[in-house]
From TrEMBL:
Keywords for the protein's UniProt record, in alphabetical order: DNA-binding, Transcription, Transcription regulation
Gene name as annotated: phnF
UniProt-listed SUPFAM superfamilies: Chorismate lyase-like, Winged helix' DNA-binding domain
InterPro entries in alphabetical order: Bact_HTH_transcr_reg, Chorismate_lyase_/UTRA_dom_sf, Tscrpt_reg_HTH_GntR, UTRA, WH-like_DNA-bd_sf, WH_DNA-bd_sf
Pfam families assigned to the protein according to its UniProt record, in alphabetical order: GntR (PF00392), UTRA (PF07702)
Biological process, per Gene Ontology: negative regulation of DNA-templated transcription
Keyword Transcription in annotation: yes
Location of the HTH gntR-type domain: 8-76
Species annotation: Nocardia ninae NBRC 108245
Origin superkingdom: Bacteria
CDD domains per the UniProt record, alphabetical: WHTH_GntR (cd07377)
Record protein name field: GntR family transcriptional regulator
GO molecular function, one term: DNA-binding transcription factor activity
Amino acid sequence: MPEIDEVLPKYLRISEYLRDRIERGELAPGAEVPSERELAAQWQVARPTAAKALNTLRQQGIVESRRGSGTYVADRPGAPVLREQVPRYGSAYAEDESVTVLAAALVTAPAPVAEALTLPSGSAVIMRKRLTDNGSGGAELATSWFDGALAAAAPLLLRTERLPGGTLRYLESVTGLRVAYLRDRVGARLATADERRGLGLARPAAVLVCQLTLHAADDAVLQLDEIVHPPARWLFQQEWWS
């Protein structure tokens, strides 16, 4: 079985991390992105690897070079920009974040999951549960669900290892599938016993739950994410200007 780094080379890890920051609005249109030298130092790679990562983004029309100046985020009218601190959907994680994959298995779909993935009742699905902590109270517990039919094409989804670039990027890279749009909804409820243990919460504890479905162009659901956030944490931020 191939190693993770053979599936996602270092240059793709870098380009997907930058793409993730751009999609989240951390790097707005017109903002300068890190240079080849800065990326090489940050990721401890050779300059050609950093250059290949930036060139990948150029070919996708995400960044553009300005002679004698640097590389900047391209202005792409209509391109999706996610809310600041939006729940992750298979995203690339920052290097300083602790990500623990708690479980990865082929299981029988719970009824709500089968319904969300538009699968028959009792279908097999891939389940990946992970705990993320940035070391400053930013913990989140997330479970991703995929159609079990993808197990053969995307075997790394069944391994309890962190996937550089995120699960969705890996799935896209090995299947050729692409996300066209996503839908999310947010609600609050009491934490389950597993969630309290994972997030270190007392009983009872309210949690914010964000559910995202990622759709292909034909409306098929490629991935279902449920992200559970602890209380007393700001998640969404918007600014309004007159």
